[in-house]
Structure formats: structure tokens, C-alpha cells
Amino acid sequence: MPERTVTVTDNHSGKSIELPVREPTLGPAAVDIGRFFRELGYFTYDPGFLSTASCHSRLTYLDGAEGKLLYRGYPIEQLAEHSNFLEVAYLMLYGELPDAEQLTSFRNIITHHTMLNEALKDFFRGFYHDAHPMAIMVGVVGSLSAFYHDSTDIGNPQHREIAAHRLIAKMPSIAAASYKHSIGEPQVYPDNRLSYTGNLLNMMFSVPCEEYHVDPVAEKALDLIFILHIDHEQNASTSTVRLAGSSGANPFACIASGIAALWGPAHGGANEAVLDMLREIGDARNIPAFLARAKDRKDPFRLMGFGHRVYKNYDPRARIIRRMCHEVLAKLGDENDPLFELALRLEEIALKDDYFIERKLYPNVDFYSGLIYRALGIPANMFTVMFAIARTVGWVAQWMEMIGEENQRIGRPRQLYTGPSTRDYVTLDRR
Ligand code: CMC
């Protein structure tokens, strides 16, 4: 097929340029505007990146209109049904599903990197007693670069791989320690006999004076939620990780920047915000009043857990999680949980409402994840931390993909300057 091009004509100067089109394996092609400024003298303007591909990637594909999500080509539904978190993590890092030997070896490596340097404990003690676990997480993950210098040479593929393993392995230990600090309980060491999610539950909920058994239903549910959250192409936190990484910053610092970006309520913080919102609504009779507020442009209130930049159809992760919510609540919690019933009712009413229909606003992954976390006994301020643990795999895989490329350049967007034009300094006595 001949190479596609797009011709752009500047109606002001009459100059035309032909821009090459980069072909994808799936989804829309991208017009390569690398020469645009040099040849036409204009920047392109796209705040919020509505039409801009910031990179090329082989990791994750989203089709927002179809409500489709693929990791390395595999549909999320198939991975959710047949795979497990560490197997999918391997797939994301190395590009192919592991054979039995590769999986055992990977599991072993991750399991044996779960412990934290003892000196890190002092960091946790330094945080205020009721610090939000996400605040602790941002700080502690950033500090890892001060403890693991031997894996910060980003030009060395082995260093990159060890850093990736360390991050994936230590995130549950850091998350659990953040939680334990916030409730004033002693940190629990990882137990290498347990699975990835079993270990996390044990470190969060066991105490030295009691016996604790990991509930297999909780362990499995968490594993599934983690698979769903592993990656989501160039979302805000992943783009942050790539941008930080493009300057040559070490991977621990890059992942800390991703955690910070994830924290916001428009991104990973939405799962916590959904539960707050459901509590605030309180009763199905109040739904119309809250929907009216969500539709009112003058009111900043939005229906949390609804809408997505890319999905203009049901979020496929939300569909899986909604089903799981029924199962988990039936086994572990209360299927008649009033907040779950309220969520179902809210979804039903919103999906019939013209405002939501016209704007193609559907529930996203966060609409139901918080309810499952709650049934697992995980407190609301840990919801986004859970997201961060799983997303670390995506962040790390995206970072490795970027750093491994030839001719990788620093990400440096330009701007449309709207400040004052040149003016002369006025001395203090004349102002
Ligand atoms: N409630 C009410 N109205 C909404 C909502 C909502 N949740 N989401 C979007 N809209 C409206 C918005 O006001 C706009 O209306 P109009 O065209 O009249 O101005 C229209 O829908 C398009 O919205 P947008 O703000 O241009 O969409 P966006 O792509 O910039 O924002 C979003 C996407 C996810 C930030 C937004 O839908 C939102 O704030 N949702 C609630 C927060 C949330 O659930 N976030 C989790 C996202 S999924 C997990 C993750 O990726 O972290």
C-alpha cells in the first residue's frame, strides 16, 4: 500500500506541506507533525491531548467506541477469566505469555524482592500519624532510589529489569506498611509462602498477636481487580511516568511521579470519591437531586465513576468488575449492601438519562471497584493505593519500552504564550 500522507495548507502564506501518516496495527492512524513547526512556523495546539498520540507503544490497545481493551493483543475478558496478575505482569514486561518455567522463575524473583530495606522503616515513622496512605506512598517510593542505587543506571538493561522487579515486588509491602502506619499497628513482614495478593492481604490485616488466614475469595478477587488495573495506555499517570523518564530520571523517581498523578479524583482517586459520593447521596430518593447537580454546568459536582476520556461505551473493566461485585458481596459481604443497591440504582437511572446518553457517559472501572474493596475490608483511603500497586506494572512496562528505544528524546511540549509582551522593568519607587 502506498504511504498515506496528509497535506496541510496555510491559507495565510499559501504554503503547503505533506505530512506522513504513521500506520497502527489497530485503531486510528497518526499524522506525524514533527516537521510542522520547522516548515510552517506554527505549533499545534491540543490541551488535554484530545487528538494527540504522545508516543507509539506495543503494550495496550483501547477502542473507546467498541469498549474494547487488549493487553499485548489479548482481550481483557480472556485474561481476567484465565490468567493471574503475575502472569499478566510477565506478559506486559516481556511481550509474550510465559511458559511454565518462565512463570515459576518470574514468580520466584518477585517473591524474593518483597522485603524492604530495614532503614526504610524509619521513613514511615517520620510521617504524621494520620497521613493519607497515598501521601506516604509517593514519598516512600521516591525514596527507593536512595536505597537501591545498584539498579538506577537506566542505560543498563539489567539494571532496568532489576528495578522493574523490585518495584512490582515491593509495592504491596510499601502499601501495607503505609496502611499500618496510618492505623498505628506494627508493620508485617512479607511471607514468601503466600501469593502476590495473599501476601498483601496478610501484610495489611494480620497482627503479631493473632493468627490470620488469607481468605481465598478475597485473594482471588484482588488478583482479578489488579489484572484489570495493570495498564490503560497513555493515561495521565502513565504519561507522567514517561515524561519524567524521558529526562533520564531513575525508575523509582518516575514511578513516584506516576503515583502523584494517579492520586487526583479525575484519575485513580475516583474510586475513593465514588464511595464518598454514594454515602453523600445516602438514599435512592436523593438520586434525582444529585443527577441534576451533575448536569448543572455551574455546579462542580460530577458523577464520580462515570465518564471516560476514551470509552464512549461501557468500560469493559467495569462490566467484569460489576459481575464480580455480585459474587464477592454474596460470598464475603452483604449482597444487600445498601451502598451496592444504591450504586445499581444510580447506574440504572443515569443510563436512561438524556444528558448521560448524549454525552456517552457510562460507568467506568472505578464505579464498582470501591464497593469490592469495601467488602474485602479495605478502607477507602487505601483504594487508590490498590490501584497504584497494580498500575505499577503498566508504568514500569511503559517506562522500559520507552527507555529501550533507540533515539529516545526528552519530552518537551511547547505552549501558546498568552502573557504580557516584552516590557521594561519598573523600579520599586516608580510602581
Ligand atoms: N458527571 C457529569 N458530567 C460529566 C461527567 C460526570 N462524571 N463526565 C463528563 N461529563 C460531561 C462534561 O461536563 C462534558 O459536558 P459538556 O459537553 O456539556 O461540557 C462532557 O460530559 C464531556 O466531558 P469532559 O470533561 O470533556 O470529558 P473528559 O474526557 O475531559 O473527562 C473524566 C473524562 C473521566 C475526567 C470525566 O468523565 C470525569 O471527571 N469523570 C468522573 C471522575 C472519574 O470517574 N474518573 C475515573 C476515570 S476511569 C479510571 C482512571 O482512568 O483513572
List keywords for this structure.
431 residues, mainly alpha, three-stranded antiparallel β-sheet, 18 helices, 6% strand, globular, binds carboxymethyl coenzyme *A
Write structural notes for this entry.
The chain is mainly alpha-helical. The protein has 18 helices and six strands. The chain has helices at about 35-40, 75-80, 85-95, 100-110, 120-125, 135-145, 155-185, 195-205, 215-230, 235-245, 250-260, 270-280, 285-295, 315-330, 340-350, 355-360, 365-375, 385-405, and strands at about 5-10, 15-20, 30, 60-65, 70, 75. The strands form two sheets. It has a three-stranded antiparallel sheet. Strands 4-5-6 form a three-stranded antiparallel sheet. Strand 1 (about 5-10) and strand 2 (about 15-20) form a beta hairpin. The chain is globular and about 75 Å long. The model has no long low-confidence stretch (mean pLDDT about 95). The site of carboxymethyl coenzyme *A has 20 residues, from helix 17.
Topology:
Elements: E1 5-9, E2 16-22, E3 30-31, H1 36-40, E4 60-63, E5 68-71, E6 74-75, H2 76-82, H3 85-94, H4 100-111, H5 120-126, H6 133-147, H7 157-183, H8 196-205, H9 216-229, H10 236-246, H11 251-262, H12 270-281, H13 287-295, H14 316-331, H15 338-351, H16 354-358, H17 365-375, H18 383-403
Antiparallel strand pairs: 1-2, 2-3, 4-5, 5-6
The structure holds carboxymethyl coenzyme *A (CMC).
Carboxymethyl coenzyme *A is lined by residues 232, 235, 266-268, 270, 294, 302-309, 359, 361, 364-366.
